[in-house]
């Protein structure tokens, strides 16, 4: 591979989310948020699809691993030192909204919460690691969910603006790179995570989801404008869950169906946040699905004024579509729909592995928008075994990441302006989709298990040393 595959100042690093690593869920004045009431294990997956979840905890029936997570709240210095040892240029983390505004509605922020992130950013600065901060990463304050119905309610724009104003002012000298809403386009599939509500019914899910998305588009535009005003040299991006969509075969019926499904999922939110306008294709979709968006005067102008500086994305899998599907054709791990792709293998959790899809996706996005791109989530959730000598030989993770990094290098040669790569779960954490510790992503093993046992001791996996070499060689040594 050419030494010049990756640009000189490419941002190598890792990615996490507050609710999946921090723990300390009742410490430092923090309020409850969505993740605190999501149980671990199979029960969590059921909540993704059922309507009417009451957002209450039942500790006698379920476990809640996010409450402790991996205790980054107390161990951040140890973890950041390990990231620095790998050579991270950037670390993606999120701010827990309910640490700053415990209920989400307060007039004044919680100083203990603000001070915690001051300490984290100072520790990153000590090692020369650039923070990349997600403002909202599936962490809507529980009070805003239970009292207001989540992002269905336009009132959340006001509360979000207050939160954003506080954190931008507080960290104006510490954080340059920001993301507004994590995987914003996932909301139509999983409104529970991104929009903070459980659909009233299957019949109302799309209407409620797209209305909630509109509120987030306005809120995102406000955040972009605030960032440019408060931190003039800041870069603020959107964040998409990207899954290039293939037709199952060359049947034009399936090709057209794949195009329709793919553009709504992959491009609708990007068009609004990057181009600053609702795309023409969405009007037919709204009409055919009886979706009517309640907009206020000035919303579209604000969205046009608040376009993002760059596009970030998560990439885990592609999607293969067929208009008429048989039950046996649907893949169990295809959380965003589609049928099994006969040419792809799957992970332990049924997620199809498709490195070429990353190159395809990067070309699609850059060809459409001509904005800098950053891959801020990509990784393999797998079972890891600690050997008798304490080693963890995760060659399968190395193989997965190597193939995806090669795909990024090819995309750069294609002319894509790719500025950074943060692998998902650079340290083991609580899986968002399954609520499990056993679905491990990290270069760093955390001794914590689904039954709640474990010492929380950190161990370097084989992939730790491999990724360190990748970074030090700027992607040359794979």
UniProtKB/TrEMBL annotation:
The keyword Hydrolase applies. One of its GO terms (biological process) is carbohydrate catabolic process. Keywords: Glycosidase, Hydrolase. It holds the Pfam family Glyco_hydro_1. InterPro entries: GH, GH_1_N_CS, Glyco_hydro_1. The keyword Hydrolase applies. One of its GO terms (cellular component) is cytosol. Its EC number is 3.2.1.86. GO terms for molecular function: 6-phospho-beta-glucosidase activity. It catalyses: 6-phospho-beta-D-glucosyl-(1->4)-D-glucose + H2O = D-glucose 6-phosphate + D-glucose. Belongs to the glycosyl hydrolase 1 family. NCBIfam families: PRK09593.1, PRK09852.1. This is 6-phospho-beta-glucosidase. It comes from Bacillus mesophilum. The gene is ascB.
């Amino acid at each position: 591979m050419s030494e010049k595959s990756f640009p000189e100042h490419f941002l190598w690093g890792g990615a996490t989310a507050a609710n999946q690593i921090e723990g300390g869920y009742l410490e430092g004045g923090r309020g409850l948020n969505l993740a605190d009431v999501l149980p671990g294990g199979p029960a969590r997956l059921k909540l993704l699809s059922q309507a009417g979840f009451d957002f209450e905890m039942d500790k006698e029936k379920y476990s809640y691993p996010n409450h402790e997570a991996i205790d980054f709240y107390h161990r951040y210095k140890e973890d950041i030192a390990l990231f620095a040892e790998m050579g991270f240029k950037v670390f993606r983390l999120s701010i827990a909204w309910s640490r700053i505004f415990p209920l989400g509605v307060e007039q004044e922020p919680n100083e203990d919460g603000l001070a915690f992130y001051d300490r984290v950013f100072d520790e990153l600065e000590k090692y020369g690691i650039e923070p990349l901060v997600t403002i909202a990463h599936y962490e809507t304050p529980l009070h805003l969910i239970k009292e207001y119905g989540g992002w269905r309610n336009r009132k959340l724009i006001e509360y979000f603006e207050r939160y954003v104003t506080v954190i931008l002012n507080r960290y104006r000298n510490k954080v340059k790179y920001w993301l507004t809403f994590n995987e914003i386009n996932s909301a139509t599939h999983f409104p529970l995570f991104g929009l903070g509500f459980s659909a009233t019914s299957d019949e109302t899910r799309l209407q409620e989801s797209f209305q909630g998305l509109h509120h987030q588009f306005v809120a995102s535009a406000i955040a972009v404008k605030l960032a440019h005003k408060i931190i003039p040299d800041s870069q603020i991006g959107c964040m998409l869950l990207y899954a290039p969509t293939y037709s199952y075969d060359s049947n034009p019926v399936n090709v057209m169906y794949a195009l329709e499904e793919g553009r709504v999922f992959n491009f609708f939110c990007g068009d609004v946040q990057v181009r600053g306008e609702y795309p023409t294709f969405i009007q037919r979709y709204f009409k055919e699905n009886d979706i009517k968006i309640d907009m206020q005067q000035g919303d579209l102008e604000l969205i046009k004024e608040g376009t993002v500086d760059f596009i970030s994305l998560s990439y885990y899998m592609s999607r293969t579509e067929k208009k008429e599907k048989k039950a046996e054709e649907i893949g169990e791990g295809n959380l965003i729909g589609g049928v099994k792709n006969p040419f792809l293998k799957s992970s332990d959790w049924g997620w199809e592995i498709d490195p070429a899809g990353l190159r395809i996706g990067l070309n699609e996005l850059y060809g459409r928008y001509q904005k800098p791109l950053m891959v801020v989530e990509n990784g393999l959730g797998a079972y890891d075994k600690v050997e008798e000598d304490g080693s963890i030989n995760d060659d399968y993770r190395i193989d997965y990441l190597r193939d995806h990094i090669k795909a990024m290098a090819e995309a750069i040669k294609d002319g894509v302006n790719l500025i950074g790569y943060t692998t998902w779960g650079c340290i083991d954490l609580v899986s968002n989709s399954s609520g499990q510790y056993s679905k491990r992503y990290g270069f760093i093993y955390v001794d914590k298990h689904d039954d709640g046992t474990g010492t929380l001791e950190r161990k370097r996996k084989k992939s730790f040393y491999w990724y360190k070499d990748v970074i030090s060689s700027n992607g040359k040594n794979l």
